[in-house]
Every structure is written in structure tokens, then in C-alpha cells.
Specification:
mainly alpha, membrane
Length: 319
Amino acid sequence: MREGLFLKKNVEKWKQYQFNQQADPDETAKRFTELVDDLGYAKTFYPESRVTRYLNGMASRIYLDIYRNKREPGSRILRFWKTDLPLVNYKHRRELFWAFIIFTTMAIMAAFSAAHDDSFVRGILGDGYVEMTEDNIAQGDPFGVYKDENRMEMFLRIALNNIQVSFLVFVGGLFLSLGSVWLLFVNGVMVGAFQYMFFAKGLGWDSVLVIWIHGSLEISAIVISGAAGFILGNSILFPGTRKRIDSLKVGAKHGAMLIIGLVPIFIAAAFLEGFVTRLTHMPKALSISILAISFIFIIWYFVIYPMIVNRRSQSPELS
């Protein structure tokens, strides 16, 4: 069949498909099937024709419409936690690694500095906090600060504060990642100085068993927020083949997904700090169990499980 005859025979049908959108899924599927047949014929006999390109574009649009509106099995929320977020974690595993390295390095450097300079801890944490802690130690209750406030009020205040800090670390990525680096630096130094203060007074391991009940989740969330900030900053610095604005949109989306994924962790950390950390005389086995469960969860969900999901995925990298 000549191309002109082929065009004359089908053009009215194609115009109807193009300009008259069909809501009925069965009719849409029928149109797609007919267009694929026409496209196959055109590719065979007119491979370089504008008709072929036209049919290819229209078939692609209908295909995307079918799968965009296709009812997905299960809940979108469940898919977010089972697939989407782990794939984002896997794609940006380097950012997570560097956020961890920066934070940990700063904490170690702070502890080293505190060991060689008696005024360092006071300079970081403030005289008031150090003196309060020393008073609590003298009274035989070194972790009494966690018992001074109403449980529910403490839970709500800490949850909101954790979310705010994490969001600031994330948004800091807009400053070419430097804002996120600085906030990881500040928080790492505070943690290092804080932890050394208790080790210097012979309460190091006791503090680990008490403070890190909530700190394991809280600090992990700050590190992951730093990774989200790096994703945002790197999308500006290294757009790759995308336009910079398009790269920024993708980076903001992936970073925001990480922050959303951290919300349950913030809440869990605040609950532990408000209701559990104050139980400073709980059995060591119970404290160790809580610590182990927290760290195992973080490592599994943010490191190991994303690798498993990536291997199962048809697409090894999330675009």
C-alpha cells in the first residue's frame, strides 16, 4: 500500500484518537492495540516517514496514560516503604557514606580535643549544662536531666526539635552542600564533646547504655538528613546530562523522600527519650537489647535492604 493511501485510510481515526480522549480503559487499550498495528506496518514500509514518527509518539502517549492510571496492587504508602525509599537509599549510598564519615570524624576529633583541653567541653556545651551535669553526678544521678520534664511534654518537644534539626540539615544542601557539611560538623562536635564528658568522669559505658537508647536513632537520623542535604547540593553542583533546574527537582524529590522516611524514626527516638531513657536503672540486658535493635534496624533498612531491593528491581538505578 502506498504511503498516501495508508495515510488517507487511517488519518481520521488517528485524529479521533489524538483529540478525543477516552476514559474507558477497554477502549483505550483497543486504541493502543490498533495504533501498535499501524505503527508496525508503518515501520516496515515507511521507516523514515513522518507518519511513522507521528504514530510512535501517539502510541507512546497512550501507553504512558494506560500505565499511569493503572491500579497498582497494594497501597502506595506500602510501596513507598518497601520499594521507593530503599531504591533512593541505594542510589545515594555514597552521600550516606560521606555524611557518616564527616559526622563520625568530627565526633572523634571533638573527643580528642576534649582529652587535651579541659576547657573544650565547656566551650562546646556551655558552662550551665556542664555544671548541671556535674551537680547531678555529685547527687548520684548523672542522667537526672532526662527526668526533670513531664514525659508527654518532653516527647512532643523532642520530636518537633528533631524534625526541625533534620529539616535544617537537609535544606542546608541548597548552599552547594556546604550548609549540610557545617551542620554535620556542629552536631558531630557536640556529640563527641558530650560523650567524652562522661567517659572522663568514669561514666562512659553507663552513659552509652542510657543516652544511646534514644541517641542511636536520633543521631542516625541526623546523619541520614545530612545525606539528603548532599543529594540536594550535588543536584546543583553535578547536574549531569540534565538541565540544572531539572536536576534540582530530582534531587529535592529524593532528599525529601529521605526526610519523610525519617519521620517515624524521629518519633521513635523522641518516645524513647521521653519515656524510656529516664529509666536509668533498667537492667543492662534490656538496655543493650534496645540499642542492638535500633542499630540493627538502621543498618538493615538503610544499607542492607536497599541492596536487596535493588537486586530485585528490573532497573538497577532510580532515575
